[in-house]
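1st attempt posting a full record on here, be nice pls
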Amino acid sequence: MNITEHFLRFYPLLAEAEMSEDGSFPVTIGRLADLLCCSSRNVKFILRKLEDEQYIRWQPGRGRGNSSRLTLLKEPEDAVFPLFRELMHKGKLKEAIDLLSMEALPVSLKHRLRTMLDSHLGFQVEESGGVLLDVLRVTHNKRLETHDPAYIFTTFESYLISQVCSRLISYAPAEGRFVPGLAHAWQSSDDCTRWTFFLRKEVRFHHGRRLTVQDVLFTVRRLKRLPHSAWLCEDIGEIETDGEYALTFKLSRSSLFFPHILSSVQFSILPGDLDPASHRLTGTGPFRIAEQSERLLVLSAFDAYYGHRPLLDRVELLLLPEDTSNERRYQISGNENDSVTALGAESGQTELKVNVINPVAGSRYLLFNFRKPGIHHNADFRKAMRMILDRAAMVAELKGNRIAPADSFLQSESEGAPFEAAPIQEAVRLLRKSGYRGEQLKLFFMNKKEEEEEARWLRDRCAQAGLPLTLQQMKSYERSRVAAEADLLAAEEVLEDDLEWGLISYYKNRSNYLHHLLTEEQLGLLNRILDGFAGFPEPSRMKLLREAERTLKDNDWLLFGCHVIKKVHLHDSLQGRQMDSFGLIDISRVWIQSPSAQKAVWPL
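the predicted structure (as tokens):
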């Protein structure tokens, strides 16, 4: 911990201290030791150092009953900006991100530092071993919770794994069909109980070994064994191989939906000779993971990729705190004229330019926790909460990236729904009918700007109805804690390009909150509705998905909130850009058209 970080740890004291006219406030050595996570002896050493550097003024208490007094001589930005500039100038990006990630920093200051960081990122040409490399450095405000395809939970995890790993086949949303992946061809029996796939030859994993049917067998056996992913393989009875490059899945029942499952990111093929639990994610995809830490992820182009090698040689993803911005930036250079700032840019900063506005398939919603006892088990109480959550009013008042109130995961389904506002008095009447006695409820939500805005908005609405709502931020997906403590969870479901797959995965994926907060009886009802889903044609499958959603909605187990857009900042020189349903750019196809210092003219 550096001297600046020590200083910033003291700032929360201002909220709890009684300050005198000279700006000092009383504090004990023990309290400072708690803030700095060190011994009392080390606190005194740190205080002397901070005083020498003119960060603080320290007046130790003399005699019994006389408390020590502390004066903070600098504002947070005065302490942080010089250090941040120095780190950026020296190219110490990881250290700069660590500074940006400090909990003690005010959110407004984090946004300003984020803007400064953005102007130093983008496209670079670097030399390595006498070779010029095209490098793209971008920021992303998501933590990587897992790199195991079987346990993916967030859109970022799905995105990353799709760049590192490959599946047997892939879904092409623009064409509405499946295209070859690791398998160059496939066929099925008339009754769709036997699916045969023919693997490409000489496909290499990132550690150099050749792909064979044994790796597919390893992947399927592993998915079938793990509780979170076993549902993917529930219809697979056995696999028949024919040499090293052909295999047939023998299913226990007809499955027209089987290609959707095999094209999912969870079905990424892993090497059978590496344990995913103890090795860095290794696949056959266009990029390999060259470096990975909590705040930095480096992807290097895989020269032996069986498809088209990426045109970028290296991509560095700087993983920032989730409270800095919900927008994504893909910049080209450190030129200030090319930089893009966050919404609400301060006077004198570069004007915001949003190049791509990407509608997101899915919606935000509230989910009740039925694993915890409480008044929310009462149907009238949940109906009252639905009235309090006036979705149209929330979208109109908060604006931002919210584009429409939601009555479904699919915006096309929400468009015909009525959103009539109910008087708050009607919600109060239902609360009384439910037997509500003023008990406090806890709402858990992710530590993101727009999610916090919605949580605060809902808290104010609940207060109008006499319902005290306590807000609890999460910095990561704390499933066990949510199940134990939350009464309500604010969440967002972002569907994949393959909408059918995204919807059925929501109901079946045991990693998500639905399986942690609904009871086994409720989940059993949803499973019975969806039983035999894979064997039906597409129109019948969508009918079953609508029925499952209607069950969630009619019982008020889940309250839909709003549909959103994702804003993506792109420089004009960024070519080959393709956006996925998550609002993320396919970096395996991107290239940069920029002036080159290596141009030469040769006589003929």
